[in-house]
Structures are given as C-alpha cells and as structure tokens.
Amino acid sequence: MGIMLVYDITNAKSFENISKWLRNIDEHANEDVERMLLGNKCDMEDKRIVPKAKGEQIAREHGIRFFETSAKANINIEKAFLTLAEDILRKVDSSEKYKHCGAIKTSLCLFEHPDPPDRNSDSTSAVSLVLETNQTKRK
Fold it and tell me: How many domains does the chain divide into?
C-alpha cells in the first residue's frame, strides 16, 4: 500500500498539516506502507510560501521520498506515481510477509489511457500496479 501526502506550496496551513497526517499514518496504517510527500503547484513559483527546503527537510526526517509537482502543468506527476509504485513493488518482492502466499507475481505497467480524465491535459498515460497472488496449500 502507498500513501501520497500532498500540500500546496502556496498555502502554509496545508504544509502544517503534514506532521499531523504523518502521525495519523504511523498510528493507523500498516507499518510497511510506503509514503511520499508532494509539494504541489510548483508552477506557481511567484506565489510560493513554503520553501522547497522545508518539504525536503520533513521528508528526510521521516525517511520518505519528496517531489515538487504541478498537477496543472503536469510536472513530476507521472514520475511521482511511478516511483511510489516501484517502491511498493520492491517492498512486496522483498517482504517475508507475502512468502506464505505461495507465489506472487508483481508487475508495473505504463500504458496509454484512451480517455484521460482531463481532456485539456497533454498526458494520456496511466500507471497500473498489478499484484497477483496464487495461494497454494501445503500438504
């Protein structure tokens, strides 16, 4: 499982919520959940309130990845999703937790989406994370 925490670089209050959200994840999510921090609206540099260094610092303190993104300008969106998906796959592939299932096949596919949600966007790609489990009974 993976969680992306997103704050708005033009809104200090949204950044202040990150610490609380990280505590909630620590308290309520599985311990092996992948987390990623995204500072969104990096296309609005002239309205920036939260310095990039603050995002990098909190990510470093919590041992999580950090990207600045722009959903509007499609900056680092695909990279962030692919990175999170790859981190999840790596964790599943190396985890003893899933060995009891018998066989696990994982794959990551990047494909062209025929009908993107935002028709104004240049991006037509989507990320698909597939986890197949074959449970076998041991005799």
Answer: 1
Query: For residue 75, what are the β-bridge partners?
Result: 70
Residue 49 lies in a domain: yes
At residue 98, the pLDDT reads 58
User: Is residue 116, in this structure, part of any structural domain at all?
Assistant: no
- Looking at the domain assignment, is residue 115 inside a domain? no
Range of the domain at 9: 2-97
pLDDT at 96 over 70: no
As a whole number, the mean pLDDT across the chain is 80
Task: Please tell me which residue, 103 or 26, carries the higher pLDDT value.
Answer: 26
